[in-house]
Amino acid sequence: MGRKTRMISDRPTLADVAQEAGVSAITVSRTIRSPEIVSERARRKVEAAIERLGYTPDPAASALASRTTSTIGLLVPSLTNNVFADVLRGVYEGVESTRFFVQIGNYRYSALHEEGLIRNFLSQKPAGLIVSSTDQTPEGRRLLETAPCPVVQIMDLRDGAVDMSVGFDQVAAVRKAAQHLLDCGYRRPGFLSARMDPRAQRRLNGFRDFAAANGVLGEDRIITTPQPSSVGMGGHLLEQLFSQAPDTDAVLCNNDDLAVGALMEAKRRHVAVPEQLGICSYNDIEMSRHMVPALTAVATPRREIGQRAIEMLLAEIAERGSVRDRHLDLGSELMIRESTRRA
Amino acid sequence: MGRKTRMISDRPTLADVAQEAGVSAITVSRTIRSPEIVSERARRKVEAAIERLGYTPDPAASALASRTTSTIGLLVPSLTNNVFADVLRGVYEGVESTRFFVQIGNYRYSALHEEGLIRNFLSQKPAGLIVSSTDQTPEGRRLLETAPCPVVQIMDLRDGAVDMSVGFDQVAAVRKAAQHLLDCGYRRPGFLSARMDPRAQRRLNGFRDFAAANGVLGEDRIITTPQPSSVGMGGHLLEQLFSQAPDTDAVLCNNDDLAVGALMEAKRRHVAVPEQLGICSYNDIEMSRHMVPALTAVATPRREIGQRAIEMLLAEIAERGSVRDRHLDLGSELMIRESTRRA
DNA sequence: ACAGAAAATGATTGCGCTGTCATTTTTCGT
DNA sequence: ACGAAAAATGACAGCGCAATCATTTTCTGT
After folding, report:
1. Cross-chain residue pair A232–B79, CB shorter than 8 Å
2. Which residue of B has its CA nearest to A268?
3. What SS3 class is residue A191?
4. What values do phi and psi take at A162, rounded to 5?
5. pLDDT tens digit string along A73-128?
6. Selecting from 3.30.1240.10, 3.40.50.300, 3.40.50.2300, 3.40.190.10, what CATH number does the domain A170-299 have?
7. CATH number of this structure's domain A14-57
8. Beta-carbon neighbour count of residue A162 at 10 Å?
9. Which superfamily, per CATH, for B69-168+303-331?
10. Which of B57, B85, B291 minimises the CB distance to A264?
């Protein structure tokens, strides 16, 4: 329905502002998007008109006309997992005070769901995309490869990244933790892991290889479950570990929830930590260092990953191909605390 | 630039599908949006054409033409806070298998930032909006009141909700917890709170009123900080509490992070819980019940809030005015565990 | 003061879709 | 088998903005 007369309730448009300011619509558009190419005089008139009318641009119209948006898509496998909460914080800090805003997609550890989200996000013509793994479906990967916007893959660092990547060597991090247990004199280390997504699986494999190479591998000390990770699950897994391998003297947990749960279960069983059981955690979220005893952990650079990812993305959006180092290894750091410190 | 010949790389449009299927564009549009009003024959042709061309609708064009989107905005004050992670989960479960998708905005406990996000979200013509408080700025509130879409305010339950609301009585919940401490025989209860956003402030006030009414109020046992809540902060606050009121015999923590931190600090100080110090937590996230000793807590219905909020919103989007009970009180439940159970 | 370059501004058109209303086809009762 | 009602389909225009290219204004050096 073509409506010549504008109803009062309608939001003002560019044209309204233009008329109010006595300039053309395109000048208003330019005043908003690149004020530096508009004369001082026009800019002031337009800004005043925008103020008077309470004008807000319509992102849909802008997206349609320009074929792009100010949206940055961020795909994470979980919102409950504190690991990604930290990544998010890093990302948010980086978009702050830019014209971009972040849209989060939660694919709940389902690659298929992730593929759907990639398709959905791309249909919205985002300015850029951050994805939390390198484990896309083949079709998901193809979509990323042919995406018309820059893409950053975070967390892992693996061959054949689609465009850019920021992360650290997860296997090296696990190895570092396992080595530490050996250094502390533990000889029968176990491994606890939940969820068993591809990344968890790779870490487990890293542990297996390391343990085997050092002659301390015991398959009955490796306890996993496909269920989600939680503090309660950490307790259950430790329980299972002790029932099938009572001689276990240390345990490497695939994340902090499990480690805290294991610590509590040890306490309930009156198993002394670190004397009878060493506990080493992975990620090192805030709570771990405040446990009693404080948990030794491999700290992963989650927040920095978020920061660097958004940094690279924004640079690449500003000018395609401008980012030199397209693959950043941020490393990991072993935080030695009481839970493995035995006399 | 009008381009008559379509470049290969371009995404197919409705018109392309229409031509491929031998129908008009509007029929394709209808096949996608309301297949029931299209004939079996046409629908099949269109679906085949969509499949062949790999067509994906352009949401920007759709938004522009129809003046609405399938986006549901969800404003939360924090993504780190597990409380909102649970709410999110409830919401996500509800939009699953609908045509809607959730866009999250994080205003980091800043009402001003929240106002900006409300404005930004509204400019995108969302189908509905969920906001996590009743503490908007006056302008933020005005925006919500005049929003052209349904709005649900969650968590709190207060007079003068803008449109719909789901939550529980936070003050009643605090009172329940405080009453429990008295019932257990604790007579000098303290209160620990961080962040001190308006909601935390109201809970503190609730505690004050209750304690005063029961003759157990001690202002020096109320320890707060404007800094964010964390496990470490729980330890610090307890430390401060003991230094300025050593006779404190119980502590009500404004959330689980603080409670866990307080528990650990008590352990470090060799203060026996629950004998010398009772600890009661607020919210009851998963980890609390697995601590040693397990933490007594007022469980808040976070996930259910998310579920009910999205339920109401979707019903209201489907048909304005169709929701009967526009203000739901989901209550709270005291979970009594070891941290307050003394002989 | 003037030509030429640079800066500022504007007219036009189309992005891809859906609302509206008109037209065609099908269905149904008698 | 016929007309009326209902169902299905289509033509057209416009949503609000930005890309393009043309035009006007301002600035520069001599």
Report:
1. no
2. B292
3. strand
4. -65, -45
5. 999 999 889 999 999 999 999 998 898 989 999 999 999 999 999 999 999 999 99
6. 3.40.50.2300
7. 1.10.260.40
8. 21
9. Response regulator (3.40.50.2300)
10. B291
